Amino acid sequence: MAFAVPLSFAAWQALLNNFAIERAAFTGKEMGMLQSLREIPGFLAFGVVFLLLVVREQRLATISLLLLGMGTALTGFFPSVVGLYVTTVMMSLGFHYYETMQTSLTQQWIEKGRAAEFFGRLIAVGSVAAIVVFILIWLGTNFFNIDYRWLYLAFGGMTVIIALTVWVIFPAFPQHSVQHKHMLLRRRYWLYYALVFMSGARRQIFMVFAGFLMVEKFGFTVSNIAMLFMLNASFNVLFARKIGRLIARFGERNALLVEYTGLFFVFVGYALVDVAWAGASLYILDHLFFALAISIKTYFQKIAAPEDIASTAGVSFTINHVAAVCLPVFFGLLWLTSTSLVFYVGALLALVSLSLSLLIPRFPQQGRETLLSH
Prior knowledge:
By secondary structure, the protein is an all-alpha fold. It has 14 helices and no strands. The protein has helices at residues 4-24, 28-43, 48-51, 57-75, 81-109, 112-142, 148-169, 190-216, 222-250, 252-272, 276-289, 294-303, 309-337, 339-357. It is globular. The termini are far apart. 51% of the residues are buried.
């Protein structure tokens, strides 16, 4: 399933900026609105808790994967502002609900000592799929001139086929702890909630405006973007699992301090860069830091009561997407005034996240969630 997700999402992401600009005449304003709409299903991820009253987590993950593939497959057939908005919401609903279930099930099924490495392995497996996608997109656009609609249909269709196969072949695996079936907010998880919120803000700047910068400012083509994404995925294959091991060895606190210090300089670099190769280098470095965000998941796994995991997975995705829904529109309007200001704000957000990371204990556990815990 981890392999199936990027078949759709990586293709959607790699084609989006060029498809939106060439076929739907998007500017930064429409792109900001589309990305805010894309994040609404993530904002509504708390709804997972209520769906679990009637559907098992594993089955819901498969349904979500199916919806992701269908939304992607239809994207190329609606080359308009409204059409792209609608198919994006459909695709995003499947993507975000699947990601919520993947996080929850991994935290439940994998023991704490192996979780960081296992999350790294999931990233690596997904990156292999992404590499396949980017190579095929590069070949399809450069040598065969394949239209956007057939690219979207092919990759979305592959995700649909894998989802249906998983539905038929795999048995229902047992759950070790009975999960809460209601919304859950606990005061002792406040630092985790804060880190998740800030992570949502950081992610938007990378996913929306760093890629848009490559196309609008430096004139990257679809094949250029596909090659850039392929380099990112290659680094994940090489390093994601090793980064997971390093997190397990040196702890979540140190990993997040490294991530947010690096991000501060990356965002300042985006604001100042005027050369295409330098912008692409920053983009690759930015993406590599994403693997360190595993630390937020494993930090929660260590401080959480086992029965809280599923409910908190949905709630945390909602918290993550509060910023994700609101910020793209604001940044899209700011983009029209100054592209650099968007990234300077990102640097400020990185400093806030760095400050929060300093409150994580060296050995977090239940009852020792933050350095302020008694």
